[in-house]
Amino acid sequence: ARACMAVRxxxxxxxxxxxxxxILARKQSxxxxxxxxxxxxxxxxxRCIGTRGSVKAKISLFTGxxxxxxxxxxxxxxxxxxxxxxxxxxxxxAMLELVQGTEKGVFNSEFPATLNSISTRVTxxxxxVRDIVGKGRMELNALEEEL
Length: 147
Hints:
The protein is of the alpha+beta class. Helices cover 45% and strands 14% of the residues. The chain contains seven helices and five strands, in the order ααβααββαββαα. It has a three-stranded antiparallel beta sheet with strand order 1-3-2, with helices on both faces. A two-stranded antiparallel sheet has the order 4-5. α4 packs antiparallel against α5 (86-100). It is globular and about 45 Å long. The mean pLDDT is 80.
């Protein structure tokens, strides 16, 4: 709860601060052993936030971490502020890297092992992807809700 509150405090401070990106760039993440904050530079904040915050909400839901992207959305440099236990923060950071490293639904790096406990990976033939995703991602959203 304390880490969640700290994340929200950064978000509120960002609303009144002109250059929140430079402030966050100088901050250090809390040690991994404790409940705290991690401040992560992100290249593709839009991907990590998603339409109306949908991706951000899913990342928070699956990892248990509080996640915010304070600052100006048009800023060249963005940071994610992640709050939670060491495990929650580690999983959230891995999820952010996964989302940022995905191009047109394809992730070409090795899947982060830290996400194995909270994910189910399914390999499908390329020709079946369209049917599995469905129109407007409807089928895939329904599958996610069932899991």
